[in-house]
Every structure is written in C-alpha cells, then in structure tokens.
Amino acid sequence: MTNQDKTVLVTGGSGFIATHCILKLAAAGYKVKSTVRNLERVSDLNKILDKAGSTYERLNKIEVDWVSADLTKDEGWSEAVKGCDYVMHVASPVALEEPKDENDLIVPAKEGTMRVLKAAAEEGIKKIVLTSSVAAIIYGHEKDSFNEEDWTDTDAKGCSAYNKSKTYAEKAAWDFINSDECNMELSVINPSLVLGPVLESDFGTSVEVVKRFLNGGFPLAPDISFGIVDVRDVAQLHLLALESPQASGNRFIASSETMAIPSISMVLREKIPEYKKKLPKGTAPNFLIKFLGLFSPLMKTVADQLGKTKELDNSKAKNILGWQPRSGEEAVVASAKSLIEFDIVKSP
Q1: Phi, psi (rounded to 5 degrees) for 219
Q2: Per-residue pLDDT tens for 189-206?
Q3: What phi, psi does 76 have (nearest 5°)?
Q4: For residue 205, which of 239, 302, 335, 336 sits 20 to 30 Å off, Cα-Cα?
Q5: Cβ(71)–Cβ(115) below 8 Å
Q6: Which domain does 325 fall in, by range?
Q7: What is the pTM for the complete model shown?
C-alpha cells in the first residue's frame, strides 16, 4: 500500500503546527483529513495551504477533506476518524495568560485527547502521533538537563495551568494506549518554543515572543532562556514518528537549541536590521524583574526563570528517527520575516 492509499487525520487543522503537518503529509503523498471548529474557515484555509504548499513544498494544490469537530464536544469525532489509517492529534487549548480557573485549560486538553483516542480506537486506527510539549517534561525539578524520561511535577509550586494541561493530557493518552481495551500504537512529540514561518495573520501563540520583539515590547531583555525549534522541523518529526515502527511507544523531545532572550535580540538586530530601534537596548537587571513580579503574574513567572538554562536532550529523535532540525537562529529569523510579510508587526 502506497502513501496515496493512506489517509491521515490532523486535528485542529487551522493551528500553527497542524498546518505545517498538513503540508508535510501532502508532500509525502498522503491523503489528508482535518478538523476545524468552524467550517466557514475552510475556504481561507485552502488558500493559505495552497500558497504555503507552493512556497515550502513545491506543491501546486493541497487537497484536504475538512470536517467539523470540537475538543469540548463528542459530536463530529466519529465522522472525523472515519476512513482514516492514522491520526495526528495536534489540537489543544492554549492561552496567552494564566486563566482564572486552571480547569479552563486542563479539562478540554485531557477530555479532548480522550475523545480523539476513543474515536480512533473504535474506528480501528493503527497509530496515533500526539503533540504534547516540553511543558510536560521540565517543570518542578531543580536540574538543568532533561530528556524523555522526565515528567513535570504538577504538584510543584507555581506549576501553570498550561503545564498541567499538557502533562495530564499526555499521561491520559499513555494510560489509554497501555490499557487492555486499546490496540493502537502511540508516539508523542514534545516541542519546546515553536517558532518558524507563520502562514497567515492568525498565527500560533508561541510566535508572540518574536512579534513582541519587533513591536518594541521588550525595552530591556530579561535574562531567561528556553528551547527553540522551527515549526517545519516539528512537522517533519511528526511525519518521521508516524512512519517509523521504532517510534511507537516513545516520546520525542522536539527542540533544536536553547537560546536566551538577549541572544534572540542579537540575532534579530543582525538579521533584521531595519527593526533595530524596536529591539531591547540591553539586558534587564534581575532585581527589576523580581520587583515587577510582585505586581504582575506574568513577570512573576519570568522572575522564577531568571538565569536558569534548561538543556533539552534531542538525541533520541536524532538517533532513532534521523531528525535534523534547523538552528534556533533560523527559526527566529523565519518567524520575523513571515510576521513582516503578513503585516502582523508594525513598520519600523
């Protein structure tokens, strides 16, 4: 059976990672089915994918069978998985700010994942590739190096609703896959901060950090670091995990390298010089960030990470799947150029 005879469902097809997964699958010859909450978006999404397909994958036309389904509702999921061989469950609720009630994120993430998995199991789907996050790996531990054996301590002080939502959803998926009632295979991708080219003005929340740089939102750069990965490489890792028998039963960290915010600023200053005046004028003193953390929940989160560098071991994805990610610098620059292309950031 060739790829042309196989159909993959990608959940949340309007999302940043999901659209790039659709492109990779189409380029590899798969038939693609995808869910959106509102079918009124389909016409725009088809145009976005066709343009991106010609830009990034040398494809003139991207064919997608769109269906309506919502993570918070049972309706639509049986229809979504019908006729599919595989599922990439990419959709997950996100929030730019910490919600007042953590369950606003946790419940739909966990229950939505279970809706997809149960529908897939009933349809006889062979394999699921689940998009999780390093948020399910790195939080609550006093160490500076992490691999796929690590899990976030959801009981740790200050553990965010987002960290909990990704951790609980992934653990629920593994519990279901390992239960007697399930015969599916599961691979999990755990991306760090996902940057890279946006395909439209409605872009992923992860790219917000680059937008903030280019709009002058960082007068001074706080000394915090995070893993960075290009969205195209995240999508490629999903495809590699889907196609590799060795990937089944495994988690894979998707992170290219760890970069500090001052380093990101330097990259943008060098590669996007027309925005120099918008970029940070220097590094923010730690005492200032800690002081602001007394008044702002966001700054409190930033203050907790000051000076800490968490290295993410990506050797498993490289060794087992042959994954070769772009540099963090390439991901940062690609984000910036696409934000400028789509007029998402203000003119310098």
Answers
A1: -60, -40
A2: 999 999 999 998 877 788
A3: 100, -20
A4: 239
A5: yes
A6: 3-341
A7: 0.93
